[in-house]
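Bug #77: duplicate submission created two jobs. Keeping one. Sequence:
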Amino acid sequence: MQDPIRYERAADGIVTLTFDAPGQSVNTLTDAMRECFARCVDRLHAEKDTLSGVILASAKTTFFAGGDLNRLYKLQSADAPALFETTERIKRTLRRLETLGRPVVAALSGTALGGGFEIALACHRRIALDQPKALFGLPEATLGLLPGAGGVARLTRLLGLAAAQPYLQDGKLMSPAEAMATGLVHALAATPEDLLAQARAWIAANPNPVQPWDAPGFAPPGGGVDAPKVKQWISTAAANVRAKTKGCYPAPEAIVCASVEGLQVDFDTACRIETRYFIGLVTGPVAKNIIGTFWFRANEIKAGAQRPADVAQRRIRTLAVLGAGMMGRGIAYVAAQRGIEVWIKDASVELARGAVTAAGQLLAKRVSAGEIDDARRQQVLALMHPVDRYEELAHVDMVIEAVPEKPALKDEVTRALQPLLGESAIWASNTSTLPITGLARSSGQPGRFIGTHFFSPVHRMQLVEVIKGKDATPETLAETLDVVMQLGKTPIVVNDSRGFFTSRVFSTFTREGVAMLGEGQEPASIEAAALLAGFPVGPLAVLDEVSLSLSYNNRLETLKAHAAEGHPLPPHGADAVMERMLDEFQRKGRAAGGGFYDYPADGSKRLWPGLARHFVKPAAQMPQDDVRDRLLFCMAIESVRILQEGVLDSAGDGNIGSVLGIGFPRWTGGVFQFLNQYGLERAVRRAEYLASRYDARFAPPQLLRDKAASGQAF
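Kept job's structure:
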């Protein structure tokens, strides 16, 4: 079998180690790669008396992608001793490389992330090909891990304790130019030939380099742990991290501990400390939750797991957006950013021009931030065309209708434009709740009619629900998924149903918070329980932002629709509270001056004192664990019902959608993975307790009971 590293020695005594994992598009730190790397370093030591230096290079378009997540994901607590030895072994290899006594240069021909960047950090010199799309950094924290091959020990010594944290705790990535500005890359090269030429020249000029931490009297930038500013940083670091993570994410806390402890000891001991924290994270539940959803399932989606395999992929060049409100202008902006030519129509051309104005404002901010130049701004704006006649849209590849959520209005614009389109054009109605099959009746081509649910603000939110109506063809579904990914978004597929997946599940979260208020619970404890569970914001604050009146009107429409269909919904404890807030107290939400919160002009928002007077019952306070679990379980149980009903085809899509679309805590890996990690038998018991103590809506669905009884996970 072909070795994943080529060992090539030139006449000038320079050895080039070229990473080239067979059968892989990128290099990863597999067992075979680690073992081959160790053998190569052994050989370098055996031949070092006749060597001039070493260049690490890659035969791929990238340098090195990082660790083998497939392997790490499978490891359990029982594997900790073996993983500890494996991790220490790769660190010994890197340590032997940087103490070879000969200059070692990383020739970074492309992206180097995670373990790949850690390999580069073990080199004396890092030279990067100046490719704007290349990325360097240590993103392990975004997957619930920390860098385990010396990244914490080396980065804190190269940048200083505080300066290293954004690259460690937040997984901040750098372009080649940014990496050079930080000092983590020493030089840029214009071409691959220049890259290798610079590497050879530096080796010739620096025959005896040592790493900074191996030099006598070394101190990291900013000083060691006894330096006054460093001591001050350490004194608040733990509290700052806990305020950010609410204790739900162990990786940032482990990174701070490994960073601070590692700077109090020698380099090799620091690496061993790092290993111990790394093992705890790898074998813990949070990293597995995050990796399972945001690595494996996300990559399955990108690879086309949801689309019919026999449909050719499609990229569109032209798009019409109907409606230039908040959603329409956001969709138009994102499409133009991706190089798609966009025609925008609203009730007047002046309203349509508002989409271009809004895009210009967003682009101007990016220019000011140095993210793009003015030429790029003009290029994007030139792709956006406000129009006032439907005839000007007849040529487009796709229409995304984003007019207000009124069936009659959607029907009107569909009947006006759809007959003008070509047979291959896709019609997508953007809606958060309205059933797509009913909307498609206005179309002359219901097979080419589909639903999309973008999230606001569109340029920031990653998720798009793609809703299959009963008449949508497999080709329409597949091509819509292609377009969503062309827009840089992550799609999930749902079958047609009122509220689909995200809106239906999210409404349980907000209503549960309001119901607990109606039962007499302190509103501050409701909001705090949500934040401590890992939600980005509490349910009462969310309702204020989206408008109490809008939310309650949607609830009334849903109740009417279900009653008309012959299966009325049971009453909910939130309804009476919402009625009082709107009718008795005229508290309609933030935009109307205040809702559950007051919004003083001279300070931060604060809970409306009237909540305590009209709702709170001191004797009715419930355990805080129950408050937290009601918020988590209401969403998870509703998700199981949705899967049971066939609205979702995949629990994996539910996991992705719940986190990216509606703020379910990321540490859980999503609604279904939350139940898996909780333990399905235990989840059934907890749901039964909540149902007996609070309301029958917590009763575990039959699918949850069946999964628990069979020992199957979602």
